[in-house]
Amino acid sequence: MSRYQRGRHAAAILVLCASSGAMPAIAQQPPGSTPSAPVPDIVVSPTRVPTAISRVGSAISVISREEIEKASARDVSDLLRRVPGLTLTQNGGAGATQTVRLRGMDARHTLVLVDGIRVNDPTSTGGEFDFAALVPTDIERIEVLRGPQTALYGSDALGGVISIVTRKGRGAPRVTLQAEGGSYGTTGIRGGISGGTDRISYAFSATDYKTAGFSRFGYRIGRIERNFPWGLEPDAARRSAVSGRVGIDLADTLKLEIGGSAALNRSQFDGGFGAFPDTPSTADTRLYNGYARVTGTMFDVWRHSLTAFATVTDRDSRGVSFGGVPVRPSRTDFFYNGHRNGVEYQGDVNFGALGTFVYGAKVERENYLGTSRAIYPVAGLTRLDDRASQVTDSVFAMHQLTLFQRLHLSLGVRSDNVKAVRTFNTGRFTAAYEIAETGTKLRTSLGTGGKAPSLYQRFSALYGTPGLLPEESVGIDAGIDQSFLDGRATLSATVFRNRYKNFIDFAASPTCLPFQAFGCYVNIGRAATRGVEVEGRAVLIEGWLEAKLAYTYLRAQDLANRRELARRPRNEGRIALAITPWRDLTIEPALIVVDRRYSGANQNQKLKAYARLDILADYRLNETFTAFVRAENLTDAKYQEVRDYGTAGRSFYGGIRATW
Predict the structure, then answer these.
(1) SS3 for 127?
(2) pLDDT of residue 325
(3) Residue 341 to residues 367, 432, 532, 577: CA-CA distances in angstroms?
(4) Please, are residues 493 and 61 in contact by the beta-carbon 8 Å criterion?
(5) What pLDDT, on a 0 to 100 scale, did the predictor assign at position 517?
(6) Exposed e or buried b for every residue in 119-129, given b needs 16+ CB within 10 A?
(7) Is the CB of residue 644 less than 8 Å from the CB of residue 623?
(8) What are the structural domains of the chain?
(9) Which residues of the chain carry a pLDDT beneath 70?
């Protein structure tokens, strides 16, 4: 039996064990809370104001601070794999591009917020966000809001929103320090300090992580490695970040908050094509994010918030290739610089029994600059490739209302006016009905979405089309959150359906200009996604054993040819058991199962299904020190998330975390 077959057998056994123990008990615990890692009772992203999760009609998952700390994750993406309805792909090892799709929508249809500030990359092809650029420092919680949210947050939110909230200091000074090391020459250190007084709060953190890595191209892929008997070059990575957040009470009803972060992702990568795909290429991504927010309250019921923000994304790549007869190396450097800045106002009025009214406006400017320079065999001057900018003016409003103390409704509308692009108007309705006697919440949401074409899609000198229309979508879902056994378990299930049109794609079209012989960006696509999301937790043995489940069934089709969209598995899930043999030790085996899917468009480059087993152990030595160990891909499963790009084999990491 091969190692791959042994891995599949081990995976199947764990699935059966987890299912037989967990499923009868799954569903107990008030919606939104769990025994081992309580989910916050209050969330912000579904309504833009703090709201009890029991009153939210949208599908939302929350990753709590306790879960984040115990996971000791190197990447935010490692945490997001716990969320149903979310698919993540990575082009190789550490530092490689990481993209997220919500409910089968494209990566560019996921809006990413850090402390309420949009950080999607204005220099990327579609405005998508690369999670490799986000280095986790001091995260308080992550809210994943699924379904069209354009009416709340504007462009990019067709598939949903991932909102990352950093820690806010409070109380006596608190210092944290974490150090780890492990496979592939990996080392990392992370530290932070936070605290506060009656008037001032502060939180600062820093992290540095590096690894010798492995070859992104071809690693552990037999048909490729056989062609390189001398071995593939490992691709190293280094990721560093600092972040800070300070709050000042200027008066009893007036607060000032200033925050921001700076992150560097430096990595090596491979060309991945031609006779010599294993190339010594390198790339740097720098992400800067800053904001200042003033919040004031009038008459105890009317709150105003004014936020000035700015983000900068710098991407530099030094691409090396080999070609010609005789073979000669060549290198070209590319530089991409994107700026986003603006001001947003939000007002909240509490009308008591008549509900809460939220309204606001936003002005945002994006700039994109692309340059390149040939280095060898013939050096050249820096060349301007692309330069573009656009301004978006937005207004929005939403009203929340509770009827009969059980039915919670919300209705929101928004208008986004992108200069020289057609204005798009969107709306969103949600409803949640609580049945406290049975621990049940019934919910539904309906929304329309809009996505403005990116700067690259409109203004690329080679492929751009200035007259592109916004992409549009409509989505609906319905679900139930049910608790069982006096709150010892919960089960959440959601069915959803989305359709979108004016999909922007690259294709040969009569509308392309004469010099665009290979194609240009055009509004040609229509697509549909539908599926089921399941999320559950259950205490199987009080104080000793808990089961966790996340599962997604997804059908994502291109309506033009009825073919499956690339990199969307039909079935995907994660099963974990949290074992606590004694009070200070937690052992969590987790099985990730991903169905077959296609790496390329039009159902090309089929990728096999796989199962990966990880185990995390966390042991609290005393009030100050905690030791942790992670075993990843314990069955040494061989799989690919993107065709021809390798993934890590069996690997081990360990470290210590201190708090005082």
Answers:
(1) coil
(2) 72
(3) 9, 36, 37, 44
(4) no
(5) 86
(6) bbbbbbbbbbb
(7) no
(8) 3-659 (2.40.170.20)
(9) 1-40
